[in-house]
Amino acid sequence: MGKTKGATQTKASEKEERIRRLLDSLPDRPGIYVYRDAAGKALYVGKAKSLRRRVRSYFRAGGPADESGRIARMLRRMHDFDFVVTANETEALLLESNFIKHHHPPYNIMLRDDKSYPYVAITRNEEFPRVFLTRKPHRPGVSYFGPFTSVRKVRETLELLGKIFPFRKCRGPQPGRRSGVPCLNFHIGLCLAPCDGRVDAAAYGEMIGRVERLLAGRPDNLAGELRAQMEKAAAAQRYEEAAILRNRLIALEHLLEFQQASAIGLESLDVIGLHVEDDGANVQVLQVRDASLSDRRSFFLKNVAGEPEDVILEQFMMQYYSTPTGFPPEVVVPPGFTETAALQKLLSDMKGSRVTVRRGVRGKRRRLSEMASQNAALALKQDLLREEEKRARPAKALKDLKDRLGLAAPPMRIECYDISNIAGQHPVGSMVVFEGGLPRPAHYRKFGVRTKGPDDTAMMAEVIGRRFSREPAQRQDESFAARPDLLLVDGGAGQVSAARRALELQGLDGIPVAGLAKRHEEVYLWNEKRPLSLPPDAPGLGLLIRVRDEAHRFAITFHRQRRGKELSSSILDELPGIGPARKRAILEYFGSPGRFMAAGRDELEAIPGLPAKVARDIYTLVHKMG
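RESULT FIELD:
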């Protein structure tokens, strides 16, 4: 319990330090932020007019975490966060919706669906289509444009469209009223009266086509015409008319604000952005699927100094698209990329069908390319902070250990030992090595303990004595050739004393020895009678815990392997009807004797090559044996 509590407190302190550094790098720009857990899973997606102010507010006293227990729980689970900058708050709102739909984060308790935002619908399945606002689910035969963020603005825009394009305003698949007489809209010039046969379907359909082009972001210079009329009215001092035209222009511009997150007309593609700085680079991949920007992936590349950007992008894409799964039919690269033809052929060959590689130089592709590049520059800044923190963390922990344990120098090489057994059965020992505060797996060693009986201290003395043996075979082992700056054992005063005696027997009395007891995470030193209690957030304690836990993991793994091998040779060999081939089939099917012993009769009967009658006999015998 104490071990878990101390490790948790240390990790929490490290997380707080990392988050503080990342908060300092946040831009004062609109966008979305994504809180993630230790596995990288999205916990919460939010939007912000200013990412810097909004995300920082979560970590201030009196912020959202203090107001809601749900948010406080979410922040405890949060391990990291990332963000995507956008051009404006409208883009952030729509991008937030897309990310929520794609990731389903558990702390977005009101997940928005398609009915959360208004769409403009055009009933193309009718002879004389209608144009209206809807929140209903999409239906076949109807064209939808959106989503939009302001119902009022959409209503204003539809009113403007109705004045410019006199489409019918009546409801129902058939135009007109029961009386057959054209309504008032015809008499005031807002409808062509298809109900009275005053316009044919072809001419009406051509007008609806212009409406669709306008809604799709191809306005045919309509905004320029309105602006010219507004300026002309203002110059003639017809200010009331100019104000009306200004309001109509604002509504139209809002309608045309099809930002990058909606990406209407770009069905499925990846947009790649790159930013290089010194020997680091960040690549952003914006994933457009089903005409929406649904996800963003960020990659930090190291050791790129001196490489041209074209080479960096090529090497990245060769790895990123190494499997054809999820391959989009189009990849948009930065405008300066020159090897599009060669890359297009290579990606097409890898996918097995045509892949188009385009530079983002015009329209929506250009805007998405700019967004990807901007986010790559901002993400690289955070990547470099994480790398700097990662490099500094071990040195900080080693210096802390030197000061707190009274060592002559930082312990650059730490060796840790642990014993694993069950009541003295199948005893094993482990040795793990950390150099410079980082694990050195090539120097890990396992020991099959020879000491009989459940005596952990004697087992510890045996393992350490064998490690420092002066036998020639020991001296030739690279792991045993180096001398540790600190010898750590998993345990308290008894294990520390056993380690010291083993070193003295080998003529080694200058190696510092410490023990880390699990119960309260107390440090027992070779030269102190009382244990040392380090602060839970001390970097040195965090390092000791990581080393001790790694030694424990390594010992447990070896113990299970050895116990499993002995169990398989004893239990399986005693079962009737089980020869070498069937024994091998059982172990391959279940993976371990333990899983075999816990299996039901149906599972045993499903083993390939094992007759059903033999499986039933084995099941009966095993359960009789308990």
